[in-house]
Amino acid sequence: MAYLIKEIFYSLQGEGVNTGRPAVFVRFSGCNLWSGRAEDRSKIPCPFCDTDFVGVDGPGGGVYDTAADVGVAMANIGPPLTAQAVRPLTVITGGEPALQLNAPLINELHLRGWEIAVETNGTLPLPEGIDWITVSPKAGTRLIVTAGHELKLLYPQSGLDPVSFENLPFRHHILQPIDDPSLHYNTRLATDYCLAHPRWRLGIQMHKKLNIK
């Protein structure tokens, strides 16, 4: 299959448990919850989405015919893989990466030495072999991926109670304030919730604070 990729870039992971870790990001085009069109935003379960995942016109973006083609493109971004003292990290994201991420790509990236992390809304099944799974549930959707390494709940979402996720088998439960015009208020709510419910830790989007991609 061909892979439709919005962009491939090198940066620091800006949120979650791996905050601050260098990574090559692969952002797939397309999402199963939103078309990406502004006129549809009010109808979706995540109107706070701040990601451009439409098309293949970003840096490093394009239509890649094979998994090997994706691997070659990634190897040309960031420091040479052979020069890195630790296993290099790639973050597969979107849009919704589960629409395109498959076993051939996972196998290809593992053969090239990558540690593979994925950021998903959890509404579609994931292939086997992913090294780090981050699930970010959205209100009004059915969660299919109910186990992983990191559950990152954007907060507050109407109709989505953190209590309903506390017993799911994730290593880490993170409450991340929604970045919208009410960010200051959302941060206060999330902080207070974490203080009252120590199962959760507060998540901050470091890349936005530092103004990096």
Question: Could you give the order of the helices and strands?
Answer: EEEHEHEEEEHEH
The largest sheet has its strands arranged as 3-1-2-4-5-6-7-8-9
Identify low-pLDDT runs: none
Structural class label: alpha/beta
User: How far do the termini sit from each other?
Assistant: 29 Å
Give the amount of beta strand, in percent: 15-25%
Question: What does the secondary structure layout of this molecule look like, with pairings?
Answer:
Elements: E1 3-12, E2 22-28, E3 62-64, H1 67-75, E4 89-93, H2 103-111, E5 115-120, E6 132-135, E7 148-155, E8 170-177, H3 183-196, E9 201-202, H4 206-209
Parallel strand pairs: 2-4, 4-5, 5-6, 6-7, 7-8, 8-9
Antiparallel strand pairs: 1-2, 1-3
Helix pairs in contact: 1-2
Tell me what the structure shows.
The mean pLDDT is 94. The protein is α/β, with parallel strands linked by helices and 213 residues long. The longest helix is centred in the C-terminal third of the chain and has 14 residues, at 183-196. Strand 4 (89-93), helix 2 (103-111) and strand 5 (115-120) form a beta-alpha-beta unit. The protein has four helices and nine strands, in the order E-E-E-H-E-H-E-E-E-E-H-E-H. The two termini are 29 Å apart. It has helices spanning 67-75, 103-111, 183-196, 206-209, and strands at residues 3-12, 22-28, 62-64, 89-93, 115-120, 132-135, 148-155, 170-177, 201-202. The chain has a nine-stranded mixed beta sheet with strand order 3-1-2-4-5-6-7-8-9. 17% of the residues lie in helices and 25% in strands.
